[in-house]
Every structure is written in C-alpha cells, then in structure tokens.
Amino acid sequence: MGNEKQVDAGREQVDTDAFLRSVARLHRLATRNAANLDVPPAQMRLLALVSDLGPARIGDLAEADHSSQPTMTTQVQRAEAHGWLTRTPDPDDARASLIALSPKGGRQLAAARAARTAAIAPLFAELGPRDAATLNRAVAIVDRLLTNPSPD
Amino acid sequence: MGNEKQVDAGREQVDTDAFLRSVARLHRLATRNAANLDVPPAQMRLLALVSDLGPARIGDLAEADHSSQPTMTTQVQRAEAHGWLTRTPDPDDARASLIALSPKGGRQLAAARAARTAAIAPLFAELGPRDAATLNRAVAIVDRLLTNPSPD
DNA sequence: TTGCAAAACATAGAGAATCTATCTAATGTA
DNA sequence: TACATTAGATAGATTCTCTATGTTTTGCAA
C-alpha cells in the first residue's frame, strides 16, 4: 500500500504526531543537558525574544512567546530581579512599561547560548552535511511558521 | 561575506543555538495548544514510549526518556492511577516491575494523538510539499539521534 | 553461608514554568 | 462624568523535574 509515511511526492504532508513527539523529546533532552546552566529555559526564551524584539510591552512579549500575560509578567519580574532586563515607563501609556535587554542581560544571553551550544552540539557532530543542511532548513521553516502572525 | 548562516556547501554544520531555540518555541506552542487535552505532555511522552518499547522497567524508561529515575517513577505512578499503564513483577528480579500499556492506555494514547494533531496540524497546512518533506526528513534525522544509545 | 557493595525502585522536599481567575489602575469614549 | 476596555499584577493550583536519601533485592566473595 505504500502508506509507510505519506511520502506521496506531490502532496506530502507533515506527520504532525511524529513531529510533535520529536519536539517533546528534543526539548526534554535539551533542558536536561542545560540543567546546570545558570539561566533556566524559560528565561533563555525570554532574553532571546527581547533581544530580537527590542523594547516591548509585556503583552506583546506574551503574544510573541505564545504564553499568557501572567506568565510573562512573572518571567519578566524574575529576569528583572537578575538585572537582565530593564523596565521603563511607556511614554504613550502609563499602564504599560517597555521591557528591554540590559547590557548585563546581553552578556548573560551570549554566555548561556555558548554554554548551551557546547552542551548539545556534540549530538550533531556525527551528522553529515546533508543531514545538517536539512535540519537548518527545517529550523528556518519552523521559525517562519512561528513568527508569522497566526492567521486564525 | 556570505557567512549568513554557515551555508558552506560541503561542511555545513547545524546551527545549534537556532535549533534549540526553535525547539523551545515549538514546545511552548505545542503544550499551549494541547493544554485543554486530558493527557498532560509528560504523560503523552510516557505512553508513546511504553507503546514503542513494550513492557519495560522503570530504569529503562527513564534512560530512554532522558529523565531521572525518580521522575519516571512519579510519571508511571500517575499513569498507573489513571489505568493507562499496568505493572507486573519482573520474573527475573524482585526489585523491578515491568510497565506495559493497558488497553485503556492504548485508547487514550490514540485519542490524545488525534486531538493533538487536530490542534496543531492547521499550522502546517500552508506549507508546500517541499517544506513538508523537509520537516519530515528532519524528524527522521532527529529520531535517529535521540534513539541511538548516546555514545558518551 | 554469611556479609556487604551495588542495583532498582520509592519517598521527600524543593524549584521552575504554566494556567485561570481576579484585582487595580489608566484609557478612551459616549 | 460614567463606564466599558485595556495593560499589568497578584493569588492559587498543577505539572514536571531534579537531588538526596531510604528500602529491598541481588550477586559476589570471603
């Protein structure tokens, strides 16, 4: 029947379940190997996000991160307590603040990225150039999907 | 300079940091969209794992899942309480038990997979066949990396 | 065969990451 | 001016995970 894995060449679809499972397993492995780092995973995500977005409001960060506003409030408070983020009043709206990466936060992000890469990169070492290229292309595709304003 | 993204054709390497970040963002999105399901993420991972491995000991499950033994003990106890997993004494070792998927667990796994797929698949709907094929290939590569006995 | 280190699992305690529900304060508009 | 809306903050509860430690079997060795 050739239904081995909808490889139908012409209208191939993503095997969503396999995809999600791989993501979950990868995330498990990544957070485990990064457990000894001094920046917890959610804080990493936040620092990288603020680094990309520049000064942004809590609500915007929550939306971009696909998390709830209370969650983002808490994460920002933690990062602020570490001195990684700064908060300035939004000149246009007294209810809001603008969250930005501090110099210390920038250094911490760079250091954590390096440490995290050092911890995980060996896993990829055995991959040939073809497979590595495939993974890089997959990352680009996913990033595009995640960054686009979800159309629903 | 063309160092845009180590695309050097010949000795391309995985951009580990971008890769890990995408995984973290995907995991965030996936767990959020699956939040209303009745099988929490870690339990999903466990049921899928047991479904693959067949009857296995706690320690083997922990190793395959890249998590600690106490964590696996807890997760197994929860799944057991739901009637999703069964525990039988290991005939070869009175200290150990063999964990297996119950019929109810199998049904729950299938249902949860379907629900999860329905929740996430729309994200992939807009992808063309080329991109879908790339993602499927990436999943295969990653699964191979994750399943191989890590050589360290 | 007894004794003890090792192995397999369970328990305790703590911290991170989330969510929903709700509260406060500022905006904007009728 | 009054009231609905919006931006964040707070409270309380889960889930998920870890390290440290305890308990029971095993298995080997004297």
Automatic annotation (TrEMBL), chains A, B:
GO molecular function ontology, one term from the record: DNA-binding transcription factor activity
Q: Which PROSITE patterns match?
A: HTH_MARR_2
Where is the HTH marR-type domain positioned along the sequence? 16-147
Q: Which InterPro entries match?
A: HTH-type_Bedaq_tolerance (IPR052526), HTH_MarR-typ (IPR000835), WH-like_DNA-bd_sf (IPR036388), WH_DNA-bd_sf (IPR036390)
Stated name of the protein:
MarR family transcripitonal regulator
Q: Which organism is it from?
A: Knoellia subterranea KCTC 19937
